């Protein structure tokens, strides 16, 4: 993934730092787990916005308990991406909630919840909410605030719903950049998204086709993401890809991003229709890692947000599998559907 993606996906963590919010890295709990598991070697994995805290957290763990602590230096953007192998007794993954459907073994998740007060920005968002039926969604950093957000909205006469997601979502109201099942689970007129940055709020708008009011409690800012602009950009890329004859189908190798069967199926469908198509397995998807794999268009079966958020970085159109089906004529061009990792 790329810089744009890094920025957008970790904006909340960056914002946490900007506001000097004290973060709970659960040092005592990690020491207990190390003792209980009799772990000799552990690895700590932080998303980009929290990585710089790694050396200090490692030191604090070693002060508590005798254990070898490794820091993952690889990029990390989500709980879909677990960086450990057989040499490590326990992986401690910071900044994300577990994805239940992945049933990861030997991994402890430290969510690093935010203690920022969200109510002032929710009060401000009331001026933008039309209602009357509002779905409340957030990322894991603020899921514990949803009860008080609901109270605030209901006091203003709005009807609130907080939906439960599918097997990839741990908490009611929580969304991931690739899964908006908790938003779709409720029948509402619009959504209120609580959290930093535009990444998740834009995803809710694209996935539901409904208006979203985004309330950023770190910057105390409200906004309405423009999903129509992104949809127009996607159709421009789809139109460009209609002229392509050679497609490179990308199959991600990160733990929770694997869709190799889908990649094979897409290659088969393309070849059947007379196109050239080949599959590349890939861990980090960037313009540089694609350099040796020329194609007139790419199809990304890994993290769905790379195609959307990093589109401008790639020289050739980077399509989602759903968009590729439009290009192949398998799917109607008329209705835009966001690619998501659903189920489990
Ligand atoms: S696959 Fe989902 S959880 Fe993983 S980095 Fe992409 S948006 Fe985030």
What does this structure look like?
The protein is an alpha/beta fold and 344 residues long. The protein folds into three domains: 89 residues, Diphthamide synthesis DPH1/DPH2 domain 1 (Rossmann fold, 3-Layer(aba) Sandwich); 107 residues, Rossmann fold, CATH 3.40.50.11850; 98 residues, Rossmann fold. Helices cover 32% and strands 18% of the residues. It contains twelve helices and 13 strands. The strands form three sheets. Strands 6-5-7-8-9 form a five-stranded mixed β-sheet, sandwiched between helices. A four-stranded parallel β-sheet has the order 2-1-3-4, with helices on one face. It has a four-stranded parallel β-sheet with strand order 11-10-12-13. Helix 8 crosses helix 9 and helix 10 runs parallel beside helix 12. It binds iron/sulfur cluster. Iron/sulfur cluster binds next to loops.
């Amino acid at each position: 993934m790329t810089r744009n993606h890094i920025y957008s996906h970790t904006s909340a963590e960056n914002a946490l730092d900007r506001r000097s919010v004290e973060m709970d890295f659960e040092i005592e709990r990690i020491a207990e787990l190390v003792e209980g598991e009799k772990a000799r070697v552990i690895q700590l994995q932080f998303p980009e916005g929290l990585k710089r805290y790694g050396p200090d957290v490692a030191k604090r763990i070693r002060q508590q308990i005798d254990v070898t602590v490794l820091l993952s230096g690889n990029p990390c953007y989500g709980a879909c991406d677990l960086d450990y192998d057989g040499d490590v007794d326990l992986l401690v993954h910071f900044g994300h909630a577990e994805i239940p459907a992945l049933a990861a073994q030997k991994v402890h998740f430290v969510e690093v919840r935010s203690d920022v007060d969200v109510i002032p920005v929710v009060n401000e968002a009331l001026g933008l909410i039309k209602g009357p039926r509002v779905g409340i969604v957030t990322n894991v950093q603020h899921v514990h605030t949803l009860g008080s957000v609901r109270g605030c909205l209901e006091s203003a006469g709005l009807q609130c719903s907080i939906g439960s997601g599918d097997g990839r979502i741990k908490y009611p109201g929580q969304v991931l950049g690739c899964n908006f099942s908790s938003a779709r689970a409720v029948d509402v007129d619009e959504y209120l998204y609580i959290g930093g940055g535009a990444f998740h709020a834009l995803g809710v708008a694209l996935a539901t086709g409904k208006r979203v009011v985004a309330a950023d409690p770190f910057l105390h800012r409200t906004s309405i993401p423009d999903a129509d602009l992104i949809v127009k950009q996607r159709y421009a890329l789809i139109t460009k890809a209609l002229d392509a004859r050679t497609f490179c189908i990308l199959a991600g190798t990160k733990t929770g991003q694997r869709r190799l069967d889908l990649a094979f199926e897409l290659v088969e469908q393309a070849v059947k229709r007379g196109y050239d198509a080949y599959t590349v397995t890939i861990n980090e998807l960037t313009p540089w890692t694609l350099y040796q794999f020329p194609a007139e268009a790419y199809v990304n079966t890994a993290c769905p947000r790379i195609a959307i958020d990093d589109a401008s970085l790639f020289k050739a159109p980077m399509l989602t599998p759903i968009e590729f089906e439009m290009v192949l004529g398998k799917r109607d061009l008329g209705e835009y559907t966001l690619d998501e990792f659903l189920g489990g």
